[in-house]
Design brief:
Layout (H helix, E strand, L loop, with lengths): L2 H9 L3 E4 L22 H15 L4 E5 L8 H10 L3 E6 L18 H21 L3 E5 L3 E2 L7 H18 L5 E5 L9 E2 L4 H11 L3 E6 L9 H10 L3 E6 L16 H13 L10 E4 L8 H20 L3 H9 L3 H12 L4 H10 L6 H8 L1 H8 L11
Parallel strand pairs: 1-2, 1-10, 2-3, 3-4, 4-6, 6-8, 8-9, 9-10
Antiparallel strand pairs: 5-7
Helix pairs in contact: 1-9, 1-12, 2-9, 2-13, 4-5, 7-8, 8-9, 9-13, 10-11
Bound molecules: 6-deoxy-beta-L-fructofuranose (LRH) and manganese (II) ion.
Length: 387
């Protein structure tokens, strides 16, 4: 792709922000509250709109229910539109109720399974009001000790619940099934890996796609292989981007391993994943436990833009020639040339073309918005995970 084509592709990039990244978050050891944090979904959407204002490529906000429960979702959607963004993916939450200690949709108790499925169906009702396309399902379900429950029986329960939700979806609505190796369950997790999610999505049909959360794999996992495989199978629905050094650290995407993010986005580019009809949702799923949250999200969007630009700059013809010639170092060299390219001037130029400041982070810090919310948001209860 020539420079102009790369800029066109980057201009149309859409990165979805997680509402919960703007609330307080932490670990089991401590949640460090920050001044100016939103007290409700309206303020979360307002903060997310600031990221879009300065980057131009973050036009939607994912919600998490009940963290973002409101009386009038249509009004919240109007609020978002007024701020130049829209409500995106609806995330269900069946991992924080006392009843779900032994599982939600896989719980041995049919009444608790029913309760969990009812919440998932309520989230589809929310989608009908917000106009959201995707219902994202992540289940904390699993066990802590061998023998605690039947792994096979739990898969049956999982399949039945997913089928019930899938049948309820209408129009262009999709079900996005997210997998995670472990935590909070520490012996087995019912949707632990891409294969399990893929198998259930195949069974469910066209509406069901896999979500790849980049923090949900065993150390050393070749995530770009999973991406290439799912893309080729037409079952890659979404990314939850973040980075980690050890476990599900939910750090800023690209912060821990920018080369991995580049390799992942190179497979997306090679597999046609940036095409509009590929319908892949590029979301962030992060927690800014100690760093300021809006600047953290702006930096994250910039990291995705930089990795995407490098991925799009790979000389595909030279790569194909080297690959078919069996020129191992030549082929690897083509990729490394793109990765070692400083794309920041290209992105600064693109932002100017888009009428934006070439440095979104500096522009945001100059805007004074951060100081304003600290002075205005006094009283009330700061938003968080409520864990
Ligand atoms: C689980 C997860 C999931 C969300 C939650 C906020 O670790 O990645 O995507 O529901 O984080
Ligand atoms: Mn996630």
């Amino acid at each position: 792709m020539n420079r102009r084509a790369v800029k066109e592709e980057l201009r149309s990039q859409q990165i979805e922000l997680p509402s919960w990244a703007f609330g307080n978050s932490g670990t089991r050891f401590k949640v460090f509250a920050q001044p100016g944090v939103p007290r409700d979904p309206y303020e979360k959407v307002a903060d997310a709109a600031q990221v879009h204002r300065f980057t131009g490529v973050a036009p939607s906000v994912a919600l998490h229910i009940p963290w973002d429960a409101v009386d009038d979702y249509k009004d919240l959607a109007r609020h978002a539109t007024d701020l130049g963004v829209r409500l995106g993916t609806i995330n269900a939450n069946v991992f924080q109720d006392d009843d779900y200690k032994l599982g939600s949709i896989t719980n041995p108790d049919p009444a608790i399974r029913r309760k969990a499925v009812d919440h998932l169906l309520e989230c589809v009702d929310v989608m009908d009001q917000t106009g959201s396309r995707d219902l994202k399902l992540w289940f904390a379900d699993g066990t802590n000790y061998p023998g605690q429950d039947s792994i096979a029986a739990r898969q049956d329960r999982l399949g039945q619940a997913l089928a019930t939700v899938n049948e309820r979806l209408t129009g262009s609505q999709r079900l996005i099934l997210e997998y995670k190796l472990f935590e909070p369950a520490f012996y087995h997790t019912d949707v632990p890996d891409w294969g399990t999610s893929f198998a259930h999505c195949l069974q469910l049909g066209e509406r069901a796609k896999v979500c790849v959360d980049t923090g949900h794999h065993a150390p050393g996992t070749n995530i770009e292989f999973i991406v290439a495989f799912l893309l080729r199978a037409g079952k890659l629905g979404a990314f939850d981007f973040n980075s980690r050094f050890y476990a599900d650290d939910d750090l800023i995407v690209g912060a821990a391993d920018p080369f991995q993010l580049f390799r992942i986005l190179f497979e997306v580019a090679s597999g046609g994943g940036f095409a509009a009809d590929a319908q892949i949702s590029f979301m962030l799923d992060q927690c800014h436990n100690i760093e300021p949250k809006i600047p953290g999200e702006i930096r994250s969007v910039m990291n995705v833009q930089e990795a995407t630009a490098k991925a799009l700059l790979v000389d595909a013809d030279a790569l194909a020639a080297a690959q078919s010639a069996g020129d191992v170092l030549g082929a690897n060299g083509v990729l490394m040339d793109a990765y070692d390219t400083d794309v920041r001037p290209l992105l600064a130029e693109l932002r100017q073309d888009m009428g934006l400041d070439p440095d979104p982070l500096a522009a945001y810090l100059r805007s004074g918005y951060g100081e304003t919310i600290v002075s205005e948001r006094v009283g009330g209860t700061q938003a968080g995970w409520g864990a």
